[in-house]
């Protein structure tokens, strides 16, 4: 079953996929839009491949996925997915309401598997049924009702995720918010800005303060986070596009393609030529 709502004026879209419905392999996207997604595993544990890296996807777990991720699942028939584009609900514009940016999406920790208790399974089942009913409505309130239900889904998942993340139990909110804002800033600027100093200044902190903060929370260093994001995007370009090493270098902010090639090999252990030979796997299916 696939249910979809589309706003004609804004081209906002909200889609619900239930059991065996196909999702495009590059993160539920078409030629114009990218979608953020929640996937709930209602069956047994299985494997999910994110950008060709396999992960254990436990039973009764919710997995947030960003629109620029490539994914596929071992048993798509056991899954339910909710996907929305920015025109329907922009998590950046509404971050103060839902608090998911830099945590569920664009976060330092990814992927984030959020477990459901028996009680939460019932809550998600109820929300799922309410959403199905609302998708079948046809009045002028449908869009706003679906947006409210999506917001409820985001907040519920964010709350659960934070209760299951040790960092959020022991440290003050303002410091955790700084980590979130750093992660978001990296997501926005990593193609042009590769130095910690830029992000520190944008956050009105010193590079040393950021480094100490991330060490306190046992996170990768700020520099490692920036480098990891660059490498992830480079891998996506080489696996899913026809861009040359030179084109990828310029797209990722490297003036010298040779410098980029050395950087890529130092971080992955592969030359760009050898890495591109791996090629993408079969398309993702949900």
Automatic annotation (TrEMBL):
Keyword hit for DNA-binding: yes
Entries under InterPro entries matching the protein: Homeodomain-like_sf, HTH_AraC
Gene3D superfamilies, sorted: Homeodomain-like
Domain HTH araC/xylS-type: start-end pairs: 180-278
One GO MF term: sequence-specific DNA binding
Keyword Transcription in annotation: yes
Keyword line: DNA-binding, Transcription, Transcription regulation
Origin: domain of life: Bacteria
PANTHER family: ARAC-FAMILY TRANSCRIPTIONAL REGULATOR, TRANSCRIPTIONAL REGULATORY PROTEIN
Protein name, entry field: Transcriptional regulator, AraC family
Species: Sinomicrobium oceani
């Amino acid at each position: 079953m696939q249910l979809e709502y589309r706003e004609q004026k804004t081209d906002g879209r909200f889609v619900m996929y239930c059991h065996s419905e196909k999702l495009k392999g590059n993160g539920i996207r078409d030629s114009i839009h990218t979608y953020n997604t929640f996937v709930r595993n209602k069956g047994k544990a299985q494997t999910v491949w994110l950008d060709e890296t396999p992960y254990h996807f436990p039973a009764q777990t919710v997995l947030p996925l960003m629109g620029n991720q490539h994914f596929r699942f071992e048993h798509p028939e056991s899954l339910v997915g909710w996907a929305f584009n920015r025109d329907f609900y922009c998590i950046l514009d509404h971050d103060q309401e839902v608090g998911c940016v830099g945590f569920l999406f664009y976060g330092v920790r990814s992927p984030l598997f959020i477990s459901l208790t028996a009680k939460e399974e019932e809550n998600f089942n109820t929300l799922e049924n309410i959403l199905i009913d609302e998708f079948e409505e046809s009045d002028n309130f449908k869009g706003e009702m679906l947006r409210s239900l999506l917001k409820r889904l985001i907040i519920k998942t964010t709350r659960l995720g934070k209760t299951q993340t040790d960092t959020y139990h022991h440290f003050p909110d303002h410091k955790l918010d700084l980590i979130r804002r750093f992660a978001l800033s990296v997501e926005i600027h990593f193609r042009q800005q590769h130095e910690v100093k830029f992000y520190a200044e944008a956050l009105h902190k010193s590079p040393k303060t950021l480094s100490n903060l991330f060490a306190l929370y046992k996170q990768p260093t700020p520099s490692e986070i920036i480098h990891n994001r660059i490498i992830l995007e480079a891998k996506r370009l080489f696996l899913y596009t026809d861009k040359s090493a030179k084109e990828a270098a310029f797209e990722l902010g490297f003036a010298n393609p040779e410098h980029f090639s050395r950087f890529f090999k130092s971080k992955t252990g592969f030359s760009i030529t050898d890495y591109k030979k791996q090629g993408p796997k079969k398309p993702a299916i949900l």
